[in-house]
Specification:
CATH architecture of chain A: Alpha-Beta Complex
Strand content of chain A: 15-25%
Largest interface: A-B, 57 and 50 residues
CATH superfamily of chain B: Transmembrane di-heme cytochromes, Chain C
Oligomer: heterodimer
Number of strands of chain B: 4
Number of strands of chain A: 11
Structural class of chain B: mainly alpha
Distance between the termini of chain B: 23 Å
Shape of chain B: elongated
Helix content of chain A: 10-25%
Distance between the termini of chain A: 21 Å
CATH topology of chain B: Fumarate Reductase Cytochrome B subunit
Structural class of chain A: alpha+beta
Number of helices of chain A: 6
Number of domains of chain A: 1
CATH superfamily of chain A: Oxidoreductase, molybdopterin-binding domain
Strand order of the largest sheet of chain B: 1-2
CATH class of chain B: Mainly Alpha
């Protein structure tokens, strides 16, 4: 859906190719995913642009029956409070450990950046907003898949509560294990893009991202950031420096 | 019939037409992108060397096939299973506890796979279009209806088993089994690779859900993608073996400079 708040969408294909071919440096004012002159990132950008050009906006991923729910491995960070793991934040790991001990009563999700009303939501605040429950397939880049039921508040509802500014183009998600990743406004406003606090009818387990995780059903699993603490809306593309997936050699867009 | 033609009806060296420029360009662009796709495909498979049927498959579920190409499937190194409900046989969850030893080169592996796929798909479409417009496909690649009679096919197949392999010409006209093989690769195997590949894309299947129905699910598409790959590798081995057997230097030269 194209609104003044959603200016990301389809641009001329040639323009995309022109920007991908050039050595465009990331930084303030960068409005497209950067390629850094890297051939692989140019291929990623081509795929991203082709999807945005050729696929209809906001098609819904298939939703399943509850009887289709399967076993789900918990991988990557399975507890941000565990310092023995290689992905561990010295700054936020101990904070998470304390929050978990308090059953997340002190947990807040901050929403900031290009919004009219920067806000902090408690879990109870989020649960008071209109919820959505969906049974979808999680597709991991490793090759496996799983079906689970997710309950949460559509990201769109939270962004609208905070009020998007007219220049808003991307949304960044900061987690307690120091992982940061972002999606464009098209995926952010997708009806199935959820801030999930429930899984299979229960509170989201620790291994799957408690107390709140992202669900992006039109992209691979690694975009569905777990253990959220902070959401930042930006006008420009933010590669999130050394923490970002793109700087670590991964495709920023994982719709394929 | 001359001895050389006994192989599969291929024309003797002196009567073959060689390869046209656009066929040669497409051949090498497709060859290099295919080899890149094959290599990165194996790298990607190593991250999860298990195949399944249906929509879903993972380490906590039984596999259709497992390959000993990486040490990534270690059921004993998962944390204790927890169930989501008290119902017997309910789905479980468990934490994977060997992340630091996990083999995963999918960052560049996947991106290079898709970059090569773009090259193969655009070249392949250009090849198919040019081939249809110039008549190359109808004249040289597709078998005549009469050639598909079981007796004719059987005779050609038997000749392949019994006749010695001798120097053969480069380029069309092709023998019957040769035409069937080339058209199966171009019009069945490669399109099937593309479609099953697209079926593994969450954005594409959201837009075009019929792909999931067509292949019986996400993991089925992945499994078909793998078996198509093995068929294409088998083709590559036989193709290169016959190029060597029928005159490697002349055949290679013909695919580079045309004759």
């Amino acid at each position: 859906m194209m609104t003044p708040n959603n200016p990301v969408p389809r641009r001329a294909f040639m323009k995309a190719m022109a920007s991908s071919a050039g050595l465009v440096l990331a930084g303030c004012g960068q409005t497209e995913p950067p390629t850094y002159g890297n051939l692989l990132r140019m291929g990623d950008l081509l795929t991203y642009k082709a999807h945005r050009l050729l696929l209809p906006e906001h098609s819904l991923a298939h939703e399943y029956e509850y009887s289709d729910v399967t076993s789900v491995p918990a991988i990557g960070t399975t507890n941000p409070g565990n310092p023995a793991r290689s992905i561990y934040s010295a700054e936020f790991g101990p904070v998470y450990e304390q929050l978990r001990a308090d059953e997340f009563s002190g947990w807040r999700l901050t929403v900031e950046g290009s919004v009219m009303r920067p806000s902090a939501f408690t879990l109870a605040d989020l649960k008071r907003l209109p919820s959505r429950t969906q049974i979808t397939r999680h597709a991991c880049e490793e090759g496996w898949s799983a079906i689970a039921q997710w309950t949460g508040v559509p990201l769109r509802t939270v962004l609208e509560a905070a009020g998007l500014q007219s220049g808003a183009r991307y949304v960044q998600f900061h987690a307690y294990d120091d992982i940061v990743d972002g999606i464009d406004m098209l995926d952010a406003l997708h009806p199935q893009t959820l801030l999930a606090y429930g899984m299979n009818g229960r509170d989201l387990p620790i291994g799957h991202g408690a107390p709140l995780r992202l669900r992006v059903e039109t992209q691979l699993g690694y975009k569905s950031v777990k253990f959220l603490r902070r959401i930042v809306v930006t006008d420009h593309f933010d590669d999130n420096g050394s923490q970002g997936t793109i700087q670590n050699g991964w495709s920023w867009y994982a719709g394929i | 019939m001359p001895a050389a033609a006994a192989l599969d009806g291929a024309t003797p060296v002196s009567q073959s037409l060689g390869h046209r420029g656009w066929v040669r360009s497409c051949h090498w662009a497709i060859a290099f992108s295919f080899l890149t796709l094959a290599f990165t495909g194996i790298v990607i498979l190593m991250a999860h060397p298990r195949l399944y049927w249906g929509e879903v498959g993972n380490d906590l579920m039984p596999a259709l096939l497992e390959f000993p190409i990486s040490n990534n499937h270690r059921p004993d190194d998962y944390g204790p299973a927890t169930t989501f409900t008290e119902v017997p046989g309910a789905p479980i969850s468990a934490t994977r506890d060997y992340e630091d030893e996990f083999f995963n080169q999918n960052s560049w592996g996947r991106s290079l796979h898709f970059l090569a796929a773009w090259i193969l798909v655009t070249t392949g479409l250009g090849y198919a279009f040019t081939g249809l417009v110039t008549g190359h496909v109808g004249r040289n690649l597709l078998p005549r209806i009469g050639e598909l009679a079981p007796r004719v096919l059987w005779n050609d197949f038997r000749n392949h088993l019994t006749s010695p392999i001798e120097p053969a010409g480069s380029g069309p006209p092709y023998g019957l089994l040769q035409k069937l093989t080339y058209s199966s690769v171009v019009f069945i195997a490669l399109p099937l690779m593309l479609l099953t590949g697209l079926t593994m894309s969450p954005a594409v299947t959201a837009a075009w859900p019929f792909l999931l129905d067509l292949f019986g699910g996400y993991q089925s598409a992945r499994t078909i993608h793998f078996f198509c790959f093995t068929a294409l590798i088998l083709f590559l081995v036989v193709h290169v073996a016959l190029v060597i057997a029928t005159g490697f230097r002349r055949q290679l030269r013909a695919m580079v400079v045309g004759h």
